[in-house]
Request: fold
Amino acid sequence: MSKQDVSLPEDEYLTGEELRELHDILKQQLEEILDDSREEIQELTAQREVDADTLDVAVNESNRDFALRLADRERRLLKKIRHALHRVQQGEYGTCESCGAPITFQRLMARPVATLCIDCKTEAEQLERPRRMFV
Ligand SMILES: [Zn+2]
Reply:
């Protein structure tokens, strides 16, 4: 087996053990969000019943808005986690979606749903940042 074609240091790529560890973390996060969502839905359902009794609608309406916003953020994270788990199955997990470079284990431990290497992420953030000149 020749390693001549590997242009990057081997230790940049995830080992099987590292991949399993990250996979476990992703599945755990997925479970947590699903549990939270279930609780939230139960709370919202319970709250609607309270609304009818107390007619304290204004307060409960804002609580509901907050819960829905939270749910929206969780939905987005859920989508990212599912995407990451899909990439694990495809054997693509741990590589940058933009340039194909390996994403380091340290970066993935800090952010298991990361799909970009640090260079591409930095570049994307710079493009997103609004220009403040003459404003
Ligand atoms: Zn990249």
Notes: Residues 1-6 have pLDDT under 50 and may be disordered. Residues 96, 98-99, 101, 116-117, 119-120 surround zinc ion (CB under 6 Å).
